[in-house]
Amino acid sequence: MLTVENIKKSFGTVQALKGISFEVNKGEIFGLLGPNGAGKTTALSILTSLIDPDSGSVFYDGENIFSHPAWWRKKIGVVPQEIAFYEELTARDNLLLWGALYGLSDKEARERAGYLLQLMGLGSKEKAKVSEFSGGMKRRLNIALGIVHKPEVLFLDEPTVGIDVQARVNIRELLRNFIHEEMAIIYTTHQLEEAEELCDRLAIMDEGEIRAQGTLKELIAQLGEETEVEFTGDFEEETVRSLEFGTTNVRLSRFSGDSILLEVKEEEIIPDIVELFMKNDVTINTMDIKRPNLETLFLKLTGKNLREG
Amino acid sequence: MRKIVRLAISDYKRRWNKPVLILLYIFTPVVLSLIMWLAFGGAGKNHDFAPLRIAVVNKDKDGLLSEFMVNALNNEKTKKHIKTFIVTEEKAREMINHRKVSGIIIFPEGFSKDILNEKKTEITLIKNPTETIYPLIAETGLDLVKDGTNYFLAIFHDEIGVIRQAVEKDEKINSVTLTSMYNNIGDKITRLTPLFTDKKIVVEDIKKKKKGTSLAIYFFAGMSFFFMFFISNAILLDMVKERNKFIIKRLFLSELKKKEYYFARLVSTVVFIFTIELVLAVTGRLLFGIKVDSLFWLFAALVISALLLSLCSAFIMGISRNEKQAHNYGMIFVFLFAILGGSLIPVSALPAAVRGLSVISPLYYMTESMISLSTHDMDRFFQVLKIATIIAAGLFVISWFLNIKKLKKIVR
User: Fold this and answer.
1) Exposed site from A200, A297, B240, B384, fewest CB < 10 Å?
2) In which element (H, E) is residue B58 found?
């Protein structure tokens, strides 16, 4: 288990990290969400032992990583936001190079390169120079290089930035299905869908601080927002207002002749509401459920829109 | 070690990624030196110079010796190499002003008489200041004439005495004296022949081998090293570019150490430069007929020059804070070293005050090593190779310190 305790870091007068703490378990994808300047990259640089913190500690399986940086670097894999390999070489050459630099034998490096090329869907392009690759293929190779030595902890810094939707979905599947189980992953992203879909737990960062952390459900519960259910149909105001939903967890928020908006605290009661409408001969054409999401949560916690950063 | 080898191999492979650029770097020095070579008469039948054009002013009227020398300059054999114009001083000066001749040789009044009377005298050489090579050749030739005359006077001192007396008395030398002189001269020549034989053979040998190649090797070696310096800078500039990219952090997040990274980079650069140098050496042999006696020493000289060039570039990268600075410093050093080192202009053509600074240019030693090797001047070759090795060792230590310090700033 990776335990981060009260990490602080300043650059001159700028306080990049004001004391962040979190834990990541093996087999877990932990998301770090935040706009530019939130301190995500500084946090990753410290966690990957590239820079020292001003104070605080990081433990992995009980060992302080700052006391044993060489040991720690063997345990981790890093997939940076930028493309970090030699584009003049082939994908296989890059994998063999990094394999050798991580101390794999020639045989191990060859086997691992072959496996990763297949896993990343680059098998047919193994002899082509990387400069000829598409953006998505380069991103996949970037990830492959981060895991060539089978790390126990993988740091992914916005690994899908700048690529098309299809390639992004492809990488998400890859991370979820093939890599996830083998290691602990710390994942930073601007993509809320990605965070929602991939991360088991999340930390929302802003201005060097973690504003909230937990599972998506826990975070939404912290938000205290309600689910909105919009019905369209042919409604009579008198009938609707006379309906007793049988609980204080439902509130009529808006009414017009052809649509009504209800706020519900628990989604489980939505089937009961539909049943009540049917019993009272209220015709429903459509139903739309609007759940509070990460974006709403992020906006509420930081006052910023994540995409605008 | 495995990591260094793997990184160096990858690095070396990457260098071949732009074959057009590499071909350009090979062809440019070849073409430029070919043009220079042709401009200096390299395209002649036997790769000879175009004839040296000299104006001769003989103020030593009826002088036996000056007459003999003028005739020697103007005979059928020498005409191929020296074109003489026997003119008045006024006409000669007009010719040099119009760049029609490379120099003027003036025999002073009473030249022959002074020599025969063992009085000091001198021949004046006026060099054309707009030319570099030919006046130097004329000067060297005149030195040879001077030395030859002095030897001649020393060896045939007795016979000259007889001639001098006859000239003074304005009388003819009788047949007995002539026969005696003839026999004496014959004896002396016979005695001198074994002494001169070896020397003569060497002279002919050098003539045969050096014929037309000295200028070619001069321009070709100079231009080649000049462009190799460009290449080594371009390769190692990559190291400065990487400092600002994540790729170098990724490298150091592996088990690779900073000194291993730097060493691998240096090795791949040296090997790459050496490869290009080999291609150029073969080109020099085929195109310019440049030959060396020892392939071993050729390889040694190429390895050391590749090392020296790479270390010069590594030094430049070590003192540069960023890519722009490295590029600017690179250009300054390339041109400064090329000009001082004689890669672009012959060192002898540099102003006297600047000429002494050639010793600070590594390109000077590289070019000199190639010239001395191809002209079989092995003493000079070993001398310059030794200096080049010492400079390389010094640069290795300095650039190691500078570059490792820079790398330590990137990752803790």
Assistant:
1) A200
2) strand B52-58
Q: How is chain B split into domains, by residue range?
A: 2-42+214-411, 52-155
CA A163 to chain centre: 16
Give pTM, 2 decimals: 0.67
Q: Give the 3-state secondary structure of residue A55.
A: strand
The domain made up of B52-155 is a member of CATH 1.10.569.10: no
Give the chain B residue nearest A47 (alpha carbons).
B253
Outline where chain A has alpha helix (H): 40-47, 69-75, 91-101, 106-119, 135-146, 165-174, 192-198, 216-223, 237-242, 270-279, 294-302
Between 3.10.20.30, 3.40.430.10, 3.20.20.370, 3.40.50.300, what CATH number should domain A2-221 receive?
A: 3.40.50.300
CA of A146 vs chain B CAs: smallest distance (Å) = 9
pLDDT digits (tens, 9 = 90+) for A27-83: 888 998 887 788 888 899 899 888 888 999 899 888 888 888 888 888 899 998 888
Q: A226-291 — its CATH code?
A: 3.30.70.120
- Taking contacts as CB-CB distances below 8 angstroms, the residues of chain A near B407 are none
Q: What is the pLDDT of residues A191-208, one digit of tens each?
A: 777 787 888 888 888 888
DSSP B343-369: SSS-GGGS-HHHHGGGGG-HHHHHHHH
Domain limits of chain A? 2-221, 226-291
User: What is this model's ipTM?
Assistant: 0.74
Judged by CB atoms closer than 8 Å, whether chains meet at B254 and A101 is answered as: yes
